[in-house]
Amino acid sequence: MVLGVAITPPGFKASGGVSAGLQLMKRVADRTETQMLVMAEQDTTSSEDRLTVHRIRARNLLGAAPPRGLPRSLHTLMWRADFGQWLDRLKPDLVHLHNPHPPGAFAQAAAEARRRGIPYVVSTHGYVEFEDYATAYGAPFWQRPLLHHLVRRPVAEVSRGAARIAMLSPEEKPILLRMGVPAERLEVVTNGVDPFFVDPFPEEDCKRLLSRFRLPSDRPLIFFVGNHTPNKGIDTLLAASLRMRVPATVVVGGGIRSPAEHQAMLSEAGFEGSSGRVIFTDFLTRDELKALYQRCDIFAFPSRADTLPLVILEAMVSRMAVVSTGVGGIPFQVSQDTGTLIPPGDAAALAKALDALAADPSRRRAMGEAGRRRALDLFNWDRSADEAVRIYRDILSRPPEER
Question: Could you tell me if 134 and 232 lie in one domain?
């Protein structure tokens, strides 16, 4: 039996790594006996297609709420769960780890598997971000040695102990080699397109779903969706919107983490008095997200660090031209005929790329059609599940000392 394990702080509602892990393991469950553990607030068990998912209670070593004066990012690193109990109960032949955040829990799950002689595979969700976590998330200099110890070091140790690393794109190979993983243990098992986003809603349903946002109809709409964390580059997008020459509206999707944090982001971008350029949706349902992909014209994702964002694939399959950054696996997703890549943190370059597409509807349409074809051709969960199962069988066919 294969046991997928998704590492995540309880209460995180929008983890791409956890979502991707669940989607892959659902397809694996069609091919071999599979169950999944997901860190959560309470113990529950459910069936999702053929996959049995155990959401297991996690606890924070510092208490459920951050102590006064402690940055939330440091508190988040302290979540743990009792993986050993579940390994003893389920007795898997192999463990597949997804999402390395928080890294201490990631290392704990790997150690429990090693202690029982169970080989494990790692998918590299978040590895680009965690290669230089302090820079990606804008940590102050005094925190950086601590974050290196708490973040990059455990991720590297888990990676070196893996029977195989399932990279999401070939671009991650240098990161894994720097971590000391032998090249022969590296494979590519990429993300796939969520079928939910492949077919559009009827136009009337789309209008109904989006009515609360009061989107303008007289100008191009630029859409971003993602966590409102420093690595996603929302500040760059806000700054670019002030520089744009072509009239357009930026729609920023994703949950607002706190009013104070949101206001600080606006202030730092020099955004007072210019809110008419940008609409913040706050939390989106899946139906609303699909409708926004369908309704908007350009997908902007100015990330400073990302491994292989699912939202880019969702936008591409929805026929959106993409403007993003040349970081992580994004160049593996976005080719020259499907979008434009700019340097991270460059608001002027982002404004120029968005202006060019906002002024050229025919180019947007051509890129959108090419993007849909590329997403459907290259990013397929069933093919990825076939590759994952091949890797599992290869590992389990070897003597324990060779795994």
Answer: no
Taking the C-alpha atoms of residue 288 and residue 241, their distance in angstroms, rounded to an integer, is 23
Print the domain residue range for 334: 195-378
Statement to judge: residues 319 and 362 lie in one domain: yes
Q: What is the per-residue pLDDT across 59-110, written as a single tens digit (0 to 9) for each?
A: 999 998 888 878 777 888 899 999 999 999 999 999 999 999 999 999 999 9
**Domain identity same for 122 and 174:** yes
Q: Residue holding tokens 């040349």?
A: 326
What is the edge-to-edge ordering of all strands in the sheet holding 221-225? Answer: 278-282, 249-253, 221-225, 298-301, 321-325, 339-342
Comparison of pLDDT for 206 and 129, the residue scoring more: 206
Look at residues 331, 333, 330, 332 and name the one whose alpha carbon lies nearest to residue 372.
333
Q: What is the CA radius of gyration of the chain?
A: 21
Q: Is the CA virtual torsion 18, 23, 24, 28 positive or negative?
A: positive
Same domain, 182 and 199: no
Same domain, 262 and 212: yes
Q: Which candidate, 350, 312, 348, places its Cα nearest to that of 328?
A: 312
CA separation, residue 82 to residues 11, 42, 147, 158 (Å): 17, 12, 24, 17
What is the number of structural domains in the chain?
2
Question: What would the two tokens of residue 237 be?
Answer: 């997008």
* 40 vs 370: CA distance, rounded Å: 39
Do 233 and 370 fall within a single domain?
A: yes
**Helix runs in 250-360, H state only:** 259-268, 286-295, 310-317, 330-333, 347-358
Residues contacting residue 266 through CB under 8 Å, at least 6 positions apart: 238, 272, 275
The CATH number for 91's domain is: 3.40.50.2000
305 plus 338 within the same structural domain: yes
Residue 291 contacts residue 206 (beta carbons within 8 Å): yes
Together in a domain, 71 and 147:
yes
Calculate what percentage of the chain has a pLDDT beyond 90.
80
At 218-257, the pLDDT tens digits run 999 999 999 898 889 999 999 999 999 999 999 999 988 7
